[in-house]
Each structure stands twice: as C-alpha cells, then as structure tokens.
Design goal:
- This protein has 106 residues and is of the alpha+beta class.
- The protein has one domain.
- Helices cover 27% and strands 30% of the residues.
- A 4-stranded antiparallel sheet has the order 1-2-3-4. A 3-stranded antiparallel sheet has the order 5-7-6, covered by helices on one side.
- A hairpin with a 2-residue loop joins strand 6 (96-99) and strand 7 (102-105).
- The protein is globular and about 35 Å long.
C-alpha cells in the first residue's frame, strides 16, 4: 500500500487502488484510523471537470474555495475534506501536478 505526504506535507496517509480502474480506499488520521472510498466514476468526473485547468486544491475543512478540488469533492463525493489526499493521488497517477498551492490538471 503506497504511503504519500498530504498536500501541504504535514503528515502521511496510505491508500490502495487505482483511481481509474478500481477507485481508491484512503487511510488517514493516526495509524490510518479513518478510511474513505472514492469510486472510479467520481475520479473520472473530477478529472474531466478540471481537465486542462489550474485550480486551487481547496484543502480547507469548512470553506473550500469555489471552483477548487475540495469544493468539488464536498459537492459530489462527501462533506469530509479529502482534497489533501486526493491531490497527491492524482499527481502520483499522472493526472495533474502541483503548482504552488494550486493543482494543474493535464
């Protein structure tokens, strides 16, 4: 199971799966105490929605900026703030890159 740094690099998390073939299960919090599944369809819609754009990642737990990945996730997947984990997963799998505090989708 891969271990990645969160978006701001303050902690680590683990995940299993592939965004476009099986979805992912994200393990976060102390010792992976919390988990969240994101399905293939959600990843496909997220990637297609932001394709070719550079947008804020939106890691805020309560007020993710409009048009950010965090706001999209909170509006389409869950109210739980997952952008800190989803961003690094998208980068690892070659769908985007980090540009400062923003994420650039290919």
């Amino acid at each position: 199971m891969p271990t990645l740094r969160t978006w701001k690099g303050r902690s680590e998390f683990k995940y299993e799966g592939n965004p476009l073939t099986e979805g992912t299960k994200i393990y976060y919090g102390k010792d992976g105490k919390y988990t969240h599944n994101i399905c293939v369809d959600h990843y496909k819609h997220l990637i297609n929605h932001f394709k070719g754009r550079t947008v804020p990642i939106g890691t805020a737990r309560d007020m993710a900026p409009a048009n950010s990945v965090g706001a999209w996730l909170q509006g389409h997947v869950t109210q739980t703030a997952l952008a800190s984990y989803v961003g690094p997963i998208l980068i690892r799998h070659g769908f985007a890159r980090q540009t400062g505090s923003d994420i650039e989708f290919y």
